[in-house]
Known about the structure:
It is a single chain. The chain has five domains: about 1-65; about 80-130, no CATH class; about 140-315, Ribonuclease H-like superfamily/Ribonuclease H (Nucleotidyltransferase, domain 5, 2-Layer Sandwich), CATH 3.30.420; about 330-400, no CATH class; about 415-445, no CATH class. Helix content is about 40%, strand content about 15%. The protein has 17 helices and 13 strands. The protein has helices at about 1-15, 20-25, 30-40, 45-50, 55-60, 80-85, 90-105, 115-130, 190-200, 230-240, 255-270, 280-295, 305-315, 400-405, 410-420, 425-430, 440-445, and strands spanning about 140-145, 150-155, 160-170, 180-185, 210, 240-245, 330-335, 340-345, 345-350, 360-365, 370-375, 375-380, 390. Strands 1, 2, 3, 4, 5 and 6 form a six-stranded mixed sheet that branches. The protein is elongated, with a radius of gyration of 39 Å. It starts with a helix and ends with a helix.
Amino acid sequence: MQKIREVLRLHFEHGCSQRQIAAATGVSKGSIGELVRRAAGQRLTWEQASQLDDVDLERRLYPSTREGVPRARFPIDFEWALHERKRPGVTLLQLWLEYCEAATSDPEGRPPLQYSQFCNHYNDHRRKLDVTMRQTHRAGEKAFIDYSGTKLRYFDVELREHVEVELFVAVLGASNYTYVEISRSQKVADFCASTVRALEYFGGAPQILVPDQLRSAVKGPDRLDPELNPLYAELGKHYGVAIIPARPRKPRDKAKVENAVLVVQRWIVAVLRNRNFTSFDALALAVGELCERLNDRPFRKLAGCRRSLYESLDKPALSPLPRTRFEIADWKKGRVNIDYHVEYDHRVYSVPHGLVGQQVDIRATTTIVEVFVAGRRVASHRRNYGPWGTAKTEDGHRPKSHRDYGKWPPSRLISWPRRSAPTLRPSSRRSWRPGRTRSRATARAWR
């Protein structure tokens, strides 16, 4: 259309020949002649043409191609469409049907768009929004988890030095509702504890957790099928969520939390940059207050704030949390010793004697120690907090001969050699004296 305007301007305003216009615009002389004839047939001057927009100018020059153009269509409420599209089970077809129903009450009588046109307009509008809105996340579907690369720190008065802490960030996909806390490390126990507190802050569990492939979440990075850390996998089972780590070097898999980390760095880290803290708890309190303020900040391009969207979208769709809180457990591998015990935290625990020499998985909490073989629990003991080297032994784990030995009372130890004296070697008969059984360690005395 720009070249058409230039042809008309050069012809009507400057009186240029077709050859000159063709050289200036690159339009063929035949096309120039056709444009001039159409403008003359419509009695269209350059002054009139310059005042028309592209649609009206096209209608004047090519009236036959504009025949049958439909009336203005009923407009789409894109804010409503984007909001409703995030709800579980809502499709574009459902939105189009509701849009058509709303069009029936239009006072101007404008007809609705066809379904394909509705989808095109919706997708075009969605692409115009900033990058955080390019992915549509269902309400209650996903929570994204990551750590900030920029750390905070406080001054430890006792150590007389600055201590750096990690910044844990979790965000719900549909509402951008964000949870932020400081953590002493990225170790698996701290990572799981932060995840538990995030779910409690959200007031429910989403369908999917999307963490980065850090060592606390997976045993090793893998693009297709990363193996989850056992403790983190157990957390997922406890809360009934699927854990799908983002692929390595694929930031779009977790674009929500990547953007949330940037927002946290701007509205929390930057705000606290000149403040001094003398304890972990004081810093944690300040971060919590700024997190609440962040969730109450109004959006720039959408109505409401993170909290209002959370209340209307994510909160109703989250699954309720279990009655019992997830207990952080420590997992380690071990091997069954020849005395059918395994060692954990400098204490030993029995397992069935048939497992001697086998490798096992040990799960320990503050109250219980469990032993697993190929995912099957084979032993369970109350946690032993006694002196180092002490044992927790279940009688059923012993071989029969060991159980029988433990049942011999001192009287049997005394009577047995008397009955067996004729069969004993002379040296054995000389070494045994009944008085030795008065020792506190009767069995040792008998040996």
